[in-house]
Fold this sequence. Notes:
Layout: H1 8-28, H2 41-56, H3 60-72, H4 82-110, H5 118-127, H6 134-155, H7 158-182, H8 197-200
Helix pairs in contact: 1-2, 1-3, 4-6
Amino acid sequence: MDPKRGSLSLSVDLIRTVAIVLVIMLHAANEPYHxxxxxxxxxxxxxxxxxxxxxxxxPSVPLxxxxxxxLLLMPEKVGEPLSVFFKKRLNRIGLPFLFWGxxxxxxxxxxxxxxxxxxxxxxxxxxxxxxxxxxLYMLLGLYLITPMLRLVTAYATQNILRLIITVxxxxxGVIPLLGxxxxxxxxxxxxxxxxxxxxxxxxAFG
Length: 206
């Protein structure tokens, strides 16, 4: 029990544990498969198994983002100086990000024999040296706007919060689904990890 979090501790630890288990399940279920009607009965079973476990594990990242929001968007933290906030975030993800970034670049150079030029390193820094870094980039963007989100959660009415979530749901759920049904790309978000946090930000209000 964390005395600083009091009764919140059990919920935080439980949510974090469930999210971690779901992330492990997601990666364990990341098994390549072919089109179901082109496979043997065993292949079809694998197809169903992979998709079921993959679907069950999808709440993993939203749970982590909602937990981040619950811990960082408390109204009493509105007055926290920006320097203090960003120093805490730097200690939490900045140094591990730098360390593992160097490790991944070294791996690409030593193991895969990739020639690292200035442009390739810059591209790797901007988009991530490996696909596993997407969550850190999303989290970085979320941290950058957290001080503003704190003001929203502290002073916005419930109707305003509902409006934010509704607009997000329409933009990231309903409109892309309609585009998929009619065969038209209606998504206005360009691809890229740098702005992916915009898709996950409303989970922080959960």
